[in-house]
Design a protein that fits this description.
- Helix 1 runs antiparallel to helix 2.
- 20% of the residues lie in helices and 38% in strands.
C-alpha cells in the first residue's frame, strides 16, 4: 500500500520551510498549501509531505524523493547544500541498493536525512 503523504514537526519552521523550498525546487516540488506554522509540499496540487510546529520534533528520520534524472539529483544536492543542508552522501550510484540507484543525501536543519533518487537505467551521470 503506497503512502498518501507524510508530515513531521520541525524546530524552526521558517528555516526549514526555506530549506525545503530551495532543496526541492530542482525536483519540481513546491509549497501546495501553507498556514500559520505549517507548509505542505507537493506537485500539481497534490500534497506529498508537510512540515510544521504542532508538536514535538521527531528524532532523525529518512525519506526520499524521486528525481526525473541524474541531473535533478545533482541539482537537488547542490540546492540543498546552498540552502544550509549538510552533505550526507554526494550524488552517485549506490550499487549496493541496485545497479541503477543514483542518489544524493543531505541532512536538513533538524538532522533528517533527505534523499533524491533516480532509478532510471542507461543514463550517463
Amino acid at each position: 500500500m503506497p503512502f498518501d503523504h507524510l508530515g513531521f514537526n520541525v524546530s524552526n519552521f521558517l528555516k526549514s520551510r526555506d530549506f525545503y523550498i530551495s532543496a526541492l525546487a530542482p525536483l519540481d516540488i513546491s509549497i501546495v498549501h501553507e498556514g500559520d506554522g505549517w507548509a505542505a509540499f507537493g506537485e500539481e496540487g497534490r500534497i506529498m509531505f508537510w512540515i510544521g510546529t504542532m508538536g514535538a520534533v521527531p528524532g532523525p528520520i529518512h525519506f526520499a524523493f524521486t528525481a526525473r534524472d541524474h541531473a535533478a539529483v545533482r541539482a537537488f544536492h547542490a540546492a540543498a547544500i546552498e540552502a544550509g543542508g549538510s552533505d550526507n552522501g554526494a550524488p552517485g550510484f549506490r550499487p549496493n541498493y541496485h545497479a541503477n540507484y543514483y542518489a544524493a543525501f543531505v541532512l536538513d536543519p533538524d538532522g533528517h536525512n533527505v534523499e533524491a533518487v533516480c532509478h532510471r537505467s542507461g543514463e550517463v551521470a
